[in-house]
Structures are given as C-alpha cells and as structure tokens.
UniProtKB/TrEMBL annotation:
The keyword Acetylation does not apply. This is J domain-containing protein. It comes from the Eukaryota. It is found in: Nucleus. One of its GO terms (biological process) is negative regulation of canonical NF-kappaB signal transduction. One of its GO terms (cellular component) is nucleus. Keywords: ANK repeat, Coiled coil, Nucleus, Phosphoprotein, Repeat. Residues 1-21 are annotated as: Disordered. Residues 43-70 form a coiled coil. InterPro entries: NFKBIL1 (IPR038753).
Amino acid sequence: PEKRDETRSEKPPHDEERINRLHKEREQIEMSEIEWVRGGGVLRDAQGRRDKARTERIRAELKLQEEEKIKMGRWKEYDDRWKALVASDKALAFADIPWPLRTAPSSRGTDAFTLSAISEFLFESLSVRSNTVTKKSRIRSSILRWHPDKSSSVVGRVVADDVDAVREGIHAVFHCLKRLQEDER
C-alpha cells in the first residue's frame, strides 16, 4: 500500500478563494481610483493627505493610453480605407487615396510626401506598448501596397484629371519607402 506524506500541507480550497477575492477587490479599487482621477479627482493617502505622486502616475498613464488610442486609430482608419478602396470599384480622385500621412495632402502635389512625414505616420503606431509589428515588416507590407506595378489597378480607376497626380504621389511614396528599407539594413 502507498503511504501518504502527512507532513506536506496543501492549501485548503477556501484560501485560494480568499486570494482570488482579494485580487478582484484590489482590481476594483484600482479601477475606481483611475475613474476618480479621470474625472479630475485627487487621490488621498491613508492619513487623508493628497497623494500627488500616485495621482500624477495615474494621470500620466491615462494620457499615454489616450495617445496610444489615437495612434492606433489613425493606423486603423488608414488600413480600413485601403480595404474599402480595394473592395470597391468606384472611380477615384486624388483625395480618395489613403495616403500614408498623418493629415491628408492639401493639394495634388507631392510636396507633402517627405521621408520624415511618411516614416512618422508608418512608425507612430509601432510605439504603442501592445504592438507586435516590426519596422521591417511594416516597411515591407507598405512597399507591397505602394509598388507602382501593384497599384496599377487603383490608378486605372482614377478620374482623368487626377491620374498624373496620383501616379506622382504613388512614385513619391514608393521612393520614400525604398529609402526607409535601405536605412533599415
């Protein structure tokens, strides 16, 4: 017969439940504190004094989360516009093209398509803490998207007045992407 080791103690199940309950309570307290600070409140310490350091840490985290949300939102909007453009068959104007810039170009010229403007847009969402995409893969996927041969189906749908401007824009973007790729090597 097998002998049981009586000296080894296992945690009773109620201890695990208690630990889980305490974790949930702590999470609820943290969420309440975050909401309090988000609403403009100031946290207090155990003695009732203002806890400026903890309040500022939460404010900084909230600000960072908002900035990350904006960055990811810009990238998602850009990506969604590309998906919609590829899926549709309607005629396109220069303004309909989802250019890889933080703000749409104000004219049909290629002055806005600078290396710094394009890299700022392409790489800003890579700084988000939850990001798993590398610079190299972002550049590669962008080159595939903006390659003049691949984008001919888009150019074929552009209205006659904007064809030259769109072609110039595509070449300017592609040229910047190739330079970024060379810089990454």
